Amino acid sequence: MSNFTVAKFGGTSVANHQAMERCATIIKNDLANRVVVVSASAGVTNHLVRLGQESVPAAERNEIIASIREIQLNIIEAFTGDHNLGDFVDEKLSQLGEIAEIQAQQHSVKNADEILSFGEQLSSALFTQVLNELGVNAKCFDIRQVMKTNSLYGQAVVDIEALKTKAIEHLAPLTKDSVIVTQGFIGQDGLGHTTTLGRGGSDYSAALIAEALDATNLSIWTDVVGIFTTDPRITDQARAIPEISFGEAAEMATFGAKILHPATLIPAMRQNIPVFVGSSKEPEQGGTFIQQSVSSSPTYRSIALRREQTLVTVKSPAMLHASGFLAKVFAILAKHELSVDLITTSEISVALTFDNPTGSTQSLINNSVLAELEQLCEVSVEHGLSLVAVIGNNLHATKGLGSSVFDKINDFNIRMICHGASSNNLCFLIPGQDANTVVEQLHDTLFAA
Ligand code: ADP
Ligand code: ASP
Ligand code: MG
């Protein structure tokens, strides 16, 4: 197959007209880019999250809608060609206002997703015009025609087969004559309602579309020049990684490296599609190539950090020499759709961690979960921990790993350690307030220049 790239631009890349123009130039310079997946303009989804919450007062709703309008109209003002996008934005925002009013009176997760989808609906229409004004024949495509999901609003699961069939039927033919601009993050359930794939989900959307269309490449354009040894916002010592294996990058994404949505690499790995990550601001700087095999496999590749983790310790003397205790604990967790992340055990107690993917301030471990667990055992719950993951290769067979990692962070309370199940990571929990310092010190130790 000839080169066929799916390109994804994140929120900061489509934040304003100048940023959009830079992205449009990237597309124009390489017309192998046939499908462009965009996020909402920076800040818009956060506004929409608030708008979709319960009982938001009318004055605040109006303010939010006015802020979104301003972001989008600033982009439109810079257009020079013919268009009716001002009317389009106004019409969309009036629909949004109506749904938000209903939501304020009677909250539903379904409407929250409908509300969230407006960010990508707006940015994709505007970005199409930016491409057209640069002389690229571009058309906007509503991804909900093909991105079919279940009805788990907020974290919808995509029907990969349906996506593939529908994308080949409805989307692929359009890419022959035009560059297709579409929305990340959103989908549609069997009842025709809009769904979303979870925060940061546009990366995943792009990877799914690349898989469905059998693309030769996936490019993720963001605000940093590739994947770094750790989040460059934590330490200026972080360095860009020129190439990394699928497995290592997937571990990074899973363990919190925000640069990629955790599920992004799953479709890419299934179809062996190389992924490029680069900066839409500085495309000439190159970036990171993620692929199946790479020329080096260093012991230490990167450090990822995931905040707001919950640690639950269950303790029962009945566990001593007993069988089936853990099965009962897991049955309760499964019933409440809680997915356990890390686990350590001792003779009479088990410690389990839970991620908080929605960033919700409400405890995942609600009173009914607690009540059921407490019938079995003593339960303690700790919030506000951070999970640090050291990612690399052959870690399970590396002598001196413990001292290399822990010697320099002696001053911190390591709450839990997980190592051995994977050759690619060593994870531990620390108090949230120490997270940045721990990552910084660890980075200095493991990645000293
Ligand atoms: P986008 O809006 O383009 O999807 P995100 O904000 O979701 O961008 O992801 C990019 C951000 O991810 C960077 O600005 C950086 O702060 C953060 N990040 C976290 N870990 C890493 C890492 N290991 N390498 C690069 N960036 C990282
Ligand atoms: N706009 C969505 C978000 O902010 C999806 C994305 O940016 O990937 O979470
Ligand atoms: Mg992102």
TrEMBL record:
Pfam families: AA_kinase (PF00696), ACT_9 (PF22468)
Boundaries of every Aspartokinase ACT domain copy: 388-445
InterPro entries to which the protein is assigned, alphabetical: AceGlu_kinase-like_sf, ACT-like_dom_sf, ACT_Aspartokinase, Asp/Glu/Uridylate_kinase, Asp_kin_monofn, Asp_kinase, AsparK_Bifunc_asparK/hSer_DH, Aspartate_kinase_CS
Binding positions (substrate): 45, 120
Keyword Nucleotide-binding set for record: yes
Pathway noted in the entry: Amino-acid biosynthesis; L-methionine biosynthesis via de novo pathway; L-homoserine from L-aspartate: step 1/3; Amino-acid biosynthesis; L-threonine biosynthesis; L-threonine from L-aspartate: step 1/5; Amino-acid biosynthesis; L-lysine biosynthesis via DAP pathway; (S)-tetrahydrodipicolinate from L-aspartate: step 1/4
EC nos: 2.7.2.4
Molecular function, one GO term: aspartate kinase activity
PROSITE patterns hit by this protein: ASPARTOKINASE
Stored CDD domains: ACT_AKiii-LysC-EC_1, ACT_AKiii-LysC-EC_2
Reaction catalyzed: L-aspartate + ATP = 4-phospho-L-aspartate + ADP
Family: Belongs to the aspartokinase family.
PANTHER family named in the record: ASPARTATE KINASE, ASPARTOKINASE
GO cellular component terms listed in the entry, alphabetical order: cytosol
Residues annotated as binding ATP: 8-11, 222-223, 233
Domain Aspartate/glutamate/uridylate kinase: 4-278
Protein name from the UniProt record: Aspartokinase
Keyword annotations from UniProtKB, A to Z: Amino-acid biosynthesis, ATP-binding, Kinase, Nucleotide-binding, Transferase
The keyword Glycosyltransferase is annotated on this UniProt entry: no
Alphabetical GO biological process terms: homoserine biosynthetic process; lysine biosynthetic process via diaminopimelate; threonine biosynthetic process
